[in-house]
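Retro notes (design track)

What went well: tokenization of the new backbones is finally stable.
What didn't: we kept losing track of which sequence belonged to which structure.
Fix going forward: every design gets posted as structure first, then sequence, in one message. First example under the new rule, 178 residues:
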């Protein structure tokens, strides 16, 4: 991990924290969050590293204002009462190339569950401005109902309007702090 040791800031113009849920059992809806803060400290010894991400639930963006309003409402995030979704890393199982798993506590609507992200580092490079950048992808699947996101509607053809399984996808570029 020595190549990656240090403190990093996620580049908001090159990072997406998003999700995918199945809609009406036949198609996928993708969304992202436009506001978040991340603290990333990579130590020489992985167990001493720290990652904490706070996502503003009201910043959800699915490309449809009506749907976004519904997702912010009490049926899902209840952003007014629960403005933050938080991930705090608890276990780093990352190899010297930056690949592996990152386990942590995910809190949504005051419910905390352990989740494991599959992490793949795409590379480390110096950009034209002299910054050290690390590109990575991370993903996990959660059952949204375990976090109190219980809304659903039955379909006449069977099944439900919104899948319980949701994939969380992060594509990021982290800049090493000077």
């Amino acid at each position: 991990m020595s190549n990656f040791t240090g403190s990093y800031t996620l580049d908001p113009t090159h990072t997406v924290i998003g999700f995918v849920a199945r809609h009406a059992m036949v198609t996928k809806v993708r969304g992202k969050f436009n506001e978040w803060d991340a603290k990333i400290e990579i130590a020489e010894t992985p167990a001493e590293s720290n990652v904490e991400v706070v996502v503003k639930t009201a910043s959800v963006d699915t490309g449809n204002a009506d749907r976004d309003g519904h997702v912010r409402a009490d049926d899902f995030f209840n952003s007014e009462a629960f403005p933050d979704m938080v991930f705090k890393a608890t276990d780093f199982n990352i190899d010297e190339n930056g690949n592996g798993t990152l386990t942590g506590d995910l809190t949504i609507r005051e419910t905390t569950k352990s989740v494991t992200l599959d992490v793949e580092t795409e590379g480390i490079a110096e950009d034209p401005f002299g910054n050290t950048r690390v590109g990575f992808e991370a993903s996990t699947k959660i059952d949204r109902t375990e976090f109190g996101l219980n809304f659903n509607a039955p379909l006449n053809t069977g099944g439900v309007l919104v899948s319980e399984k949701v994939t969380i996808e992060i594509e990021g570029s982290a800049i090493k702090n000077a």
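Added context from the reviewer: The chain has a mean pLDDT of 87.
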